[in-house]
Amino acid sequence: NTTKRRAGALEITGAMTVARPRNEVYAFWRNLSNLPSFMSHLEEVTELSDTRSKWKAKLPGGVGSVTWEAMITEDAP
């Protein structure tokens, strides 16, 4: 069979219940250095100041990583 097949897009969604107080969860999430502990593509997040951070993420296929700096422009718990 010489017919070429193209894979379609796949969307996966999910939900999770976190049995902790909202303010505790927000404080954990807002500490950016915690993000790699549950976001497997992140290698490191370093907070440079209250609003600036440096991120390092793995590229798909294990071909390396990418780094960038980010700035929080608005923060609403």
Features:
single chain; 77 residues; alpha+beta; 3 strands; 26% strand
What can you see in these coordinates?
With 77 residues, the chain is α+β, with helices and mostly antiparallel strands. The mean pLDDT is 90. The protein has a 3-stranded antiparallel beta sheet, with no helix packed on it. The chain has 1 helix and 3 strands. It has one helix at 22-30, and strands at residues 42-47, 52-58, 65-71. Strand 1 and strand 2 form a beta hairpin. The radius of gyration is 18 Å and the shape is extended.
User: What best-fitting shape do the alpha-carbon axes yield?
Assistant: extended
- Total number of helices: 1
What fraction, in percent, of the residue positions are helical?
A: 10-25%
Placed side by side, the strands forming the largest sheet appear as 1-2-3
The major pleated sheet works out as: 3 strands, antiparallel
Low-confidence stretches: none
Distance between the ends: 56 Å
Category from helices, strands and their pairing: alpha+beta
Strand-residue fraction?
25-35%
State Rg: 18 Å
| Average residue-wise pLDDT | 90
Q: SSE string, helix = H, strand = E?
A: HEEE
- Give a count of the beta strands, DSSP E runs of length 2 or more: 3
